[in-house]
Amino acid sequence: MTETTTTLSKPESLHQWLMSDRPSSRRQAALGRAYGGCRTFARNRLALVGLLIVLALVLVALFADLLAPYSAYVGDLRTTRLLPPSSAHWFGTDDQGRDILSRLIQGSRITLFVVVLVAVLAAPIGLLVGTVAGYAGGLVDATLMRITDIFLAFPRLILALAFVAALGPGIENAVIAIAITSWPPYARLARAETLTIRQTDYIAAVQLLGASPWRIVLRHIMPLCVSSVIVRVTLDMAGIILTAAGLGFLGLGAQPPMPEWGAMIANGRLYVLDQWWVAAAPGAAIFIVSLAFNLLGDGLRDALDPKAAQ
Questions:
Q1: Distance between the two ends of the chain, CA-based, in angstroms?
Q2: What angle is formed at CA 171 by the lines to CA 288 and CA 59, rounded to 5 degrees?
Q3: Average pLDDT, 10 consecutive residues per value, the chain (310 residues)
C-alpha cells in the first residue's frame, strides 16, 4: 500500500514542482513555463490537428522518394495523359502523363524548403531591427521604422514580384524575395515589445551593472521578444506558402519540371473545366497546409502568451 501511494504521489509532486509560483532556480522556472505552455497547447484540439498536419508534411517531405508511387518528372503521353483519379493514380495525371500524387509528394519538399528558409532569413532580421530601434530610440528608431514603413506600404506579393523580376525567376530568388518582404511585421512587433521591456526595473538593473547597449539588446531584450515573433512567424507561414504559390503560378518561382504546387495549379488552369483534378489537387494541398499552419499558430499564441497563463 505504501509503495502504491508513493508511486501515485510522484507525478503529483512533479506537477507541483513545475507549477510552483516561487521557483528556486532558473531551470525550474524555464521547465515550469514550458510545461504550462504544453498543457495550454494540448487543450486546443484544433491546434493539435494543425500540428499533426504539419508533422505529416515534414514526414512526407523527408520520405518523399519512398512514398511517391511514380516518378514526379517522367510520364507517358501515349497511355497516361490526363487520366482521372483511379486506383492506379489516386489523384489522376497531368497533361504530361505524370502522376499528380507523386508530384504533390515531391512538391512538399519545395514548400517546406521555402517556409523554413524564409523563416530563418526574415525572422532574425525583423527581430534585430525591431529591438535595436525600440531600445535606441531617437534618430535610429525613426530611420529604421521609416524603412520598415516603406516595405509595409506595398502589398507583399507585388513587392516580391518586383524583386523576383529584378533577380530573375527561380526558387532561390523567390525565397530571397519573400524573405525581403516578410521581415517588416516582425520588426514592428519586436519594437513594440522592446518599448515596454526597456522601461522595466530588470533592464535598469542591467544598465547599472555596466552592460553595453548591444549586450542588453542581444542577451536581455531579444530573448523576451522571441516567443511573440515565433507566434507571428507561424501565423505568417500560410501567407508565405500562398506568396510562393503565387510566384510559381506566374512562372517566377520554381521552374518546370519542378513539382511546385503553385506551378501545378498554373499548369492545370488550362484544363480546369474538363480535367478539374489537375488544378484541384495542388489547390487542396495548399489550402490544407495553410490552414494547418494557421491552427498551429493560434495554439502557439495561446501557449506562449504570458498574459494567458493561469
A1: 35
A2: 40
A3: 47 72 74 78 90 95 93 88 91 92 94 91 94 92 94 88 89 91 93 90 87 89 89 89 89 86 89 90 94 91 63
